[in-house]
Design brief:
Radius of gyration: 17 Å
CATH architecture of the largest domain: Sandwich
Largest sheet: 8 strands, mixed
Order of helices and strands: HEEEEEEEEHH
Number of strands: 8
CATH topology of the largest domain: ATP Synthase, domain 1
CATH superfamily of the largest domain: F0F1 ATP synthase delta/epsilon subunit, N-terminal
Strand content: 35-45%
Helix content: 25-40%
Length: about 140
């Protein structure tokens, strides 16, 4: 990508350990930061932040795309936003039934963790948040 192409746009790259999920020039990118959702436009001040599980959105013209993000980190510098996440999936790649089963298992583990100290409450709660986010994102696309 030449600097001329990036003059008024932002290069967005979403990367997981196994692959590049997105590499596009976009108008805006919005991500789920640990301190709340944040948006990035061209000429944004450089920064590095942690991400929480949730929905990431980006827009090219009038087309808006969504991704499930499993947390990770976002770096913004020189009109480029890089997302490093354990997992990132577009809505059409999310298996809705599998996500619903995961939510049910996680809800049971969270309830059991309240009674049994041997069950890791934080892990159960994190699994529940991931399942709920996947269901939410996949359901929006299919409406």
């Amino acid at each position: 990508m030449t600097e001329k192409h990036l003059e008024h746009r932002l290069l967005l790259e979403v990367v997981t350990p196994s692959r590049m999920v997105v590499s596009k020039v976009v108008d805006i990118a919005v991500a789920p930061g640990v301190m709340g959702e944040f948006g990035v436009l061209v000429s944004h001040i450089p920064f590095l932040t942690s991400l929480q599980v949730g929905e990431m959105r980006y827009r090219v013209g009038k087309e808006e795309e969504r991704l499930f993000i499993s947390g990770g980190f976002a770096e913004v510098s020189n009109n480029k936003m890089t997302i490093l996440a354990d997992a990132a999936e577009p809505p059409e790649k999310i298996d809705l039934e599998r996500a619903r089963r995961s939510r049910e298992r996680a809800e049971k583990r969270v309830a059991q963790a309240a009674k049994d100290e041997a069950i890791d409450f934080a892990r159960a709660e994190a699994a529940l948040r991931r399942a709920i986010a996947r269901i939410s994102i996949a359901s929006k696309k299919r409406m």
